[in-house]
Design goal:
The complex is a heterodimer of chains A (about 350) and B (about 260).
Chain A (H helix, E strand, L loop, with lengths): L4 E4 L2 E2 L2 E2 L1 H17 L3 E6 L3 H10 L4 E5 L9 H15 L3 E5 L2 H13 L4 E5 L1 E5 L2 E8 L4 E7 L4 E5 L18 E2 L11 E8 L11 E5 L17 H22 L3 E4 L1 H5 L20 E5 L5 H7 L4 E6 L6 H4 L2 E4 L2 H15 L3
Parallel strand pairs in A: 1-4, 1-6, 4-5, 5-12, 6-11, 7-11, 14-15, 14-16, 16-17, 17-18
Antiparallel strand pairs in A: 2-3, 8-9, 9-10
Helix pairs in contact in A: 3-4, 5-9
Chain B lengths: L1 E5 L2 E3 L6 E3 L2 E3 L5 E3 L1 H17 L2 E7 L5 H10 L3 E5 L9 H15 L4 E4 L11 H9 L3 E12 L4 E7 L3 E8 L2 E5 L11 H9 L4 E2 L1 H4 L8 E7 L9 E2 L5 H14 L4
Parallel strand pairs in B: 1-6, 1-8, 6-7, 7-13, 8-12, 9-12
Antiparallel strand pairs in B: 2-5, 3-4, 9-10, 10-11
Chain lengths: ~350, ~260
């Protein structure tokens, strides 16, 4: 008998994203209520290892495809194969991790399968055999309870929101290899070039995020190198500030975030932006440095477990959300704070 | 070249959105064009300016959604189409995508349809991909640069900013492109543009005009609520010197065992 819950595992170069296992764990809880097991699906040229791991994280059956046409992610061949497999098995629930790929595939499979999609959910429950999802809308200002009438009921699970299932090496199995649904000639796009980014901890997966805002450039005591105009000097100052932010992040094993103001001012690349027009994050600890906490920034970090704020302005709205606050200059506070953590964490 | 850009009217990002008596309200906060869609309009205009052709802005919604079209016209779009039908009220994402796909097909000979990343009201982020799938066109998401767009050769080459790095992708036209905010800074509407937009005639297309049946929504929101208030007691950490404050703060954070 086919399993009633299917989960797509998003991976990159043979490494699954943690949120993929969180989605699998969420799928397992639903399967226990529905009766039956969980099927995991993983695509990509190095996906066989991940397919094996999926058993450890709770899958009862695993399909993988490692054809070259699925090497670089392209939505069309991935959607075609996933929709074909799902059509054959007709599960009641199909889950994806909320990664960019996961959300896109969920959206496209919903069209192929003529069903509804509930992206970026923060909760899943079962009432009378029906799945209800919790979804934040309006940047988390409101919460909806959502349901889908048709099957499969498709949802994507928000990062760091569902518990990470423990890996149990005793649970194992043999994944089933499947062949692509489209031949290379039937795919209207191709990836011609690829450059990997600089590494570091991904913002979405980070347990700790230290973020800098407009205030990082605010240190008149620093003397920029000669020959810079006013704007260049400001960016240079900000970069000195972000070094301090980065030192603290590195000490805590975390990632560096930024407010929109800091990104728009050219202090740091867009990929670091947290907020409504950046990334939505939910770390265990979020340290906001020189960030006032505009409502658009709050939209990206309000579900952090603990928020700490360092800001010169005692009236900054960020303090209202913070567990701990320091009214002070980040240039004065961050270096000794980094030192204190190094000492106390034995680093 | 024929370019479509799909836009949506939404409450301003600074609006205080709450549920009152079971209804969503944002007080007197203004409705604006979805901020992500401004990047899509800008991208469409840049392509039109580079190689001629036209940009057609499309939206679905009630009467006030026309303001998003007017914003696109004021920025420089050539024309606009308003899709409105009582049967589209309460549509789910698939219903919206199928109506947009039908409109794009009715417009005809479209080379590229641009979208923003997501609308800041529903935060779904699926409309571009679902419309692409309904059209059967390649989907190019998170596009941060358009390297080339050749309507006669029928190809497009774009840079995508993915989670792991940067990808250059080539695809056969027509395509759906959704852009991020690093593609180009959206221009402000010009005075002339605003005058032109205020005089523009915007046709309204119904589902009958699109030649599609009324969609049946399968995704429902049986409940919408205000989120629970963040229960936090803020403790200000003070001290005689930055070192003292830093020591205390580190101890207090460690004591809460979040690390």
């Amino acid at each position: 008998m086919s399993n009633k819950v299917w989960v797509f595992i998003d991976q990159f170069k043979g490494k699954a994203f943690p949120v993929s296992w969180e989605a699998l764990g969420a799928g397992r809880s639903l399967a226990e209520k529905l009766g039956g097991g969980v099927t995991a699906v993983v695509f990509g040229t190095q996906s066989q290892g991940v397919a094996g791991e999926a058993f450890h994280y709770g899958a009862d059956e695993v399909f993988y495809a490692d054809d070259a046409s699925l090497g670089d992610y392209r939505p069309e061949p991935y959607t075609a194969l996933l929709s074909k497999l799902v059509k054959g098995a007709a599960p009641e629930v199909l889950l994806f991790p909320t990664t960019t790929r996961g959300r896109e595939l969920a959206a496209m499979c919903a069209i192929d399968l003529n069903t509804g999609v509930m992206p970026d959910v923060t909760g899943l429950s079962m009432e009378n055999g029906r799945v209800y999802a919790t979804r934040p809308v309006y940047a988390g200002k409101l919460i909806t309870k959502v349901a889908c009438d048709t099957q499969p009921q498709i949802a994507t699970t928000r990062t760091r929101t569902f518990p990470m299932p423990p890996a149990d090496p005793a649970r194992s199995g043999t994944p089933t290899k499947v062949e692509p649904a489209l031949a290379e000639g039937e795919i209207a796009s191709k990836v011609v070039e690829y450059t990997e980014s600089g590494g570091g901890v991904s913002l979405s997966d980070a347990a700790v995020i230290v973020s800098g805002g407009r205030g990082v450039s605010n240190n008149p005591a620093l003397t920029p190198p000669a020959g810079l105009d006013e704007k260049q000097a400001e960016v240079w100052r900000a970069q000195q500030g972000f070094k301090l932010v980065g030192d603290l992040a590195a000490t805590l094993g975390g990632a560096v975030g930024a407010s929109r103001a800091a990104v728009d001012a050219g202090y740091i690349p867009y990929e670091h932006q947290v907020g409504q027009t950046g990334k939505v994050v939910a770390p265990d600890l979020y340290i906001a440095c020189g960030i006032s906490g505009a409502i658009q920034h709050q939209a990206g970090m309000r579900t952090s477990k603990m928020i700490v704020a360092v800001n010169k302005d005692a009236e900054a709205p960020i303090f209202k959300m913070a567990r701990f606050g320091v009214v002070g200059d980040l240039y004065a506070i961050l270096p000794p704070l980094t030192e204190a953590f190094k000492k106390k964490l034995g680093k | 070249m024929k370019i479509v850009v799909c836009v949506k009217q939404v409450p301003d990002s600074a609006a205080k959105v709450v549920v009152e008596n079971g209804k969503v309200t944002w007080g007197d906060a203004p409705l604006v064009i979805n901020p992500w869609d401004e990047f899509a309009v800008e991208s469409a205009l840049l392509q039109m300016e580079a190689q001629g052709g036209e940009v057609i802005a499309v939206t679905i919604g009630g009467e006030n959604s026309k303001d998003a079209l007017k914003h696109a016209l004021a920025m420089g779009a050539s024309s606009a189409i308003h899709i409105s039908d009582p049967a589209l009220m309460g549509s789910d994402s698939q219903g919206i995508a199928r109506a947009l796909a039908a409109a794009i097909q009715k417009i005809g000979d479209v080379n590229v349809a641009f979208f923003g990343r997501q609308a800041i009201d529903g935060d779904m982020g699926v409309t571009a991909a679902q419309t692409a799938r309904a059209l059967g066109w390649p989907m190019l998401s998170q596009v941060s640069v358009i390297n080339s767009l050749d309507p006669s050769g029928g190809t497009i080459r774009v840079g995508r900013a993915t989670e792991e790095g940067r990808q250059v992708v080539e695809a056969k036209l027509p395509v759906v492109v959704s852009v991020g905010k690093d593609i180009a800074e959206p221009r402000y509407p010009s005075f002339m543009g605003i005058r032109k937009a205020s005089k523009a005639t915007i046709p309204t297309w119904s589902l009958a005009d699109l030649g599609i049946p009324a969609p049946v929504a399968v995704v429902h929101w049986p409940e919408i609520t205000n989120p629970p208030a963040r229960e936090v007691v803020t403790e200000m950490v003070t001290g005689g010197s930055p070192q003292e404050i830093a020591e205390k703060l580190a101890d207090r954070i460690l004591a809460e065992k979040v690390l």
